[in-house]
Amino acid sequence: MQVQQFSVWPFAALVFGFPVVWLAVMYWVSRISGWSSFVRRYPANAQPSGQTYNWSSGRFAWYSTYNRCLIITVSAAGLHINAHYFFRFGHQPIFIPWADVIRMQRAHYVLNSRTTLELPGGWPQTVTLYGRRLADAIAKTAPAHLTT
Predict the structure, then answer these.
(1) What number of other Cβ atoms are within 10 A of residue 74's Cβ?
(2) Is the peptide bond before 93 cis (omega within 30 degrees of 0)?
């Protein structure tokens, strides 16, 4: 009877290769999505106090959607946006002050709401956030000239 030998290489490739690939993908997504552009324009120094919404969804510019992987804090000063732990590599926190928001649009759907913030400057110019409770908190907290 012949004994089969177990090769450790496939297991080692999976254990060490997957995290490397994951980190590379997260870094690439942050560059392609426009997140890194937002970080350069709106770096977050500290998380403000306010209402926090975990597992939120959002879109930067027009094609990069972050589904249920954002932590968004709505405060009187603005919006603090961060990615959850496993998606954080290459995604430093963003703070968008209300003073920089040019226009805010809100749309309601049967089961959801969408809030789009238009920002000054070059690409990307919009941030769209999804969720009815989040949209309500933004509408309550944003300055009056944005909510009319």
Answers:
(1) 22
(2) no
Tokens coding 36: 């890194």
Structural domains of the chain ordered from first start: 33-147 (2.30.29.30)
**CB 92 within 8 Å of CB 104:** no
pLDDT tens, residue by residue, 90-129: 999 999 999 999 999 999 988 889 999 999 976 658 899 9
Biggest distance spanned by C-alpha atoms of the chain: 82
The encoded tokens of residue 56 equal: 């939120």
CA 129 to chain centre: 9
Q: Which segment of 3-12, 29-38, 67-76, 121-130 scores lowest on mean pLDDT?
A: 3-12
Quick one: average pLDDT of 127-136?
94
Predicted confidence at residue 64, as pLDDT, reads 78
* Separation between Cα atoms, residue 33 and residue 117, nearest integer Å: 16
DSSP string computed for 7-30 = PSHHHHHHHHHHHHHHHHHHHHHH
Residue in 110, 48, 36 with CA at minimum distance from that of residue 78 = 48
